[in-house]
């Protein structure tokens, strides 16, 4: 049995959110992190991913399944149960993701400064 996912496992100001290295889209990496410890049901994934609608999460899981990173398993009921888990290919992304997160944490201040400068009046976003 895997430990329950924490609702706040993804702090809105977490360095991983600042990482300029994106895997697929902004949610793929966090979904992979949610599946890191083992299979999860859809309802379990919704806890830390509460900012993602059910429809969008379903689409993201299908995309990750299509790309061979996530496997979907239907367990016959009653009650019928669906679980998602990382495939070996998906698991192979964990080490590079750790490296990217470490890099983002080490360059946190520089990333914040660059984003603030970009968004400030006179910054590149206002040209």
TrEMBL record:
Keywords from the UniProt entry: DNA-binding, Transcription, Transcription regulation
Record GO terms (molecular function): DNA binding
Residues covered by the HTH hxlR-type domain: 14-112
One matching Pfam family: HxlR
Alphabetized SUPFAM superfamilies for the sequence: Winged helix' DNA-binding domain
Organism: Streptomyces cinereoruber
Superkingdom field: Bacteria
Database matches in PANTHER family: TRANSCRIPTIONAL REGULATOR, MARR FAMILY, TRANSCRIPTIONAL REGULATORY PROTEIN
Protein name according to UniProt: Transcriptional regulator
């Amino acid at each position: 049995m895997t430990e329950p996912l924490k609702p706040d496992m993804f702090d809105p100001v977490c360095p991983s959110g600042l990482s300029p290295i994106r895997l697929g889209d902004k949610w793929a990496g966090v979904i992979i992190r949610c599946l890191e410890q083992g299979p999860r049901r859809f309802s379990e994934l919704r806890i830390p991913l509460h900012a993602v609608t059910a429809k969008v999460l379903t689409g993201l899981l299908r995309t990750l399944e299509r790309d061979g990173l996530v496997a979907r398993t239907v367990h016959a009921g009653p009650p019928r149960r669906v679980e998602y888990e990382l495939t070996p290919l998906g698991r192979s992304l964990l080490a590079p993701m750790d490296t990217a997160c470490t890099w983002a944490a080490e360059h946190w201040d520089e990333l914040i400064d660059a984003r603030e400068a970009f968004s400030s009046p006179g910054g590149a976003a206002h040209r």
